[in-house]
Write a structure and sequence with these properties.
single chain, mainly alpha, about 0% strand
Length: about 300
């Protein structure tokens, strides 16, 4: 009896188990193709081409910033010649009594003040839309999403007429105040708040007696730090590279941004004493430095946000 049961339960010596055969076939068909050397080579080539495409303009700016006026037009554009970086910097910072430094200062003030206000307002709006139930929330969210379809240039004439009535044309307020409101940042903050803030945590805080403002600043804002950092970076980059708004609303050259100032030099191109094209190149490479510093300094918010938003 025992012998019969052993023969029926044990598989034959030459047969394979279906599960193992299926796994082997799956690994051979799918896993091997994904890990093939040809696929890896294609991926590496694609990444290398993307890296070259991204860094080639920056490399050209670095090389061109070290050249004199003559070498800029007569030598290879992708390699160095005689280095004149110090004289180029001196010429840039002293031209027109240091107007370039004034443009950099204006851009930093417009960018930090406008983006900081936009981050606070948009994070608070996104938090409210995600965490609170109120009448008309769906309609309000639909209006926010629908505003994505309105081109910014379409609002130029109404904005100009409004700012004229408010008497803020040719003033920093014409650049800073409109940057406080950004529909996409509100939507981004709402989506992030829905995934990062558990409603149970807010209910527990309310049971403990915490008010809504305290809950937002001590719990909601901290859990949304990564999203707020992303909103701040996107907003600051947009403010730093903004051109159309300062071109329309600013008249005095002392109030221009660095992008508008460099454009004015590029439009003139030559002066009686200096080559403005070379100064535009040097000014462009210097204008990249605040962006690099900002991105490097904001990395810690992503690392802290990931660990802070984790729940056991």
């Amino acid at each position: 009896m025992t012998t019969t049961m052993d023969r029926t339960t044990r598989p034959a010596a030459g047969t394979r188990r279906p599960g193992r055969a299926t796994r082997s076939r799956r690994d051979k068909d799918g896993g091997g193709a994904r890990q093939s050397p040809r696929t890896k080579a294609l991926i590496l080539v694609g990444l290398a081409l993307f890296l070259i495409y991204s860094l080639a303009p920056v490399w050209w700016l670095i090389v061109a910033a070290t050249k004199s006026q003559r070498d800029l037009y007569t030598t290879n554009g992708l390699w160095f010649s005689a280095v004149h970086l110090g004289s180029n910097f001196k010429q840039l910072f002293t031209y027109q009594d240091g107007i370039y430094l004034t443009w950099m200062r204006n851009t930093l003030i417009y960018g930090f003040v406008g983006t900081a206000g936009m981050t606070v307002i948009c994070v608070a709006c996104g938090y409210a839309l995600a965490m609170y139930e109120f009448k008309g929330r769906g309609f309000l969210m639909g209006c926010i999403i629908g505003s994505f379809l309105v081109p910014g240039a379409l609002l130029t004439i109404p904005s100009f007429l409004l700012f004229t009535d408010l008497n803020i044309i040719d003033s920093p307020s014409a650049i800073i105040v409109p940057s406080f409101f950004n529909a996409f940042s509100v939507y981004l903050a709402k989506v992030y708040a829905e995934g990062a803030i558990p409603p149970e945590l807010l209910e527990a805080a309310r049971i403990d007696g915490a008010g809504e403002y305290r809950i937002f600043f001590t719990i909601g804002a901290r859990l949304m730090s990564t999203g707020a950092a992303t909103i701040f970076i996107l907003g600051f980059v947009g403010m730093w590279n903004s051109f159309f708004g300062p071109l329309v609303f600013l008249r005095s050259s002392e109030k221009w941004t660095v992008m508008l100032g460099l454009y004015s030099w590029l439009k003139v191109k030559t002066d009686s004493s200096v080559d403005l094209t070379g100064m535009v190149v040097v000014g462009s490479i210097i204008s990249l430095v605040p962006m690099v510093i900002l991105l490097v300094s904001m990395q810690r918010y992503w690392r802290s946000g990931v660990s802070l938003g984790s729940l056991k």
